[in-house]
Amino acid sequence: MRDLTTLFGLAVAVAAVLATIGVWAPRKLWVRGAAVGTALVLLAIGYSAFAELLSRPKPVALEWANGQTAVATVLATTIRENEGIYLWLQYSGQAEPRAYVVPWGRDLAEQLQQATSEAEQNGTGLMMRLPFERSWDPREPKFYAMPQPALPPKDNGAAPQVFERRGRKREHRHAGAPAGREAGRPAGRAGPGVRRRPATGRSLPRVLRRP
User: Fold this and answer.
1) Which domain holds residue 8?
2) Sign, Cα dihedral of 48, 50, 53, 55
3) What's residue 27's pLDDT?
4) How far is CA 200 from CA 167, 203, 207, in A?
5) pTM of the model
6) Could you say which of 15, 72, 113, 192 would form a disulfide bridge with 131 (CB–CB 3.0 to 4.6 Å)?
């Protein structure tokens, strides 16, 4: 849209110069008025032409400003036999994607279909090499699918975690650590509810409960 504004501004400047020349020329009044009216008509036609071109794909042969682009991402494609290959491209240097049309070629269309199938199978994107280059090596594919990204390493060096379920409580501990309440108890100490024998070796008296 910024390119349209710039080009239309240049067209307005040229039309204004032509109208000024027509007004100050030593001609009759109706001739000078016709020059101004022609300039206004030129502006209207130019704006309509620019607006109409925004919705149409641009031939790759007319892309001069970005002719040295090395690679582009293909966002969408439409193949029309014996007419052309329509592409929706995104490449560096442009904030928004743009529509282009490539001249029809059976080999190029088959190459595009094969690369599209590979990209769908790999779950990756579709790329186009030298999208605006007129002469390219036919031995090197114009379209290709991006390779799959490398998988992250499985072993990260951390100890595996073990989950145990006891009653209604779930305990979380690392492998090799003691389970239950004994994990945080110093050695030599018994837990609650556990009787230890005295150091003298005598047994504890038995307590009888009455019925």
Assistant:
1) 2-55
2) negative
3) 76
4) 38, 9, 20
5) 0.57
6) 72
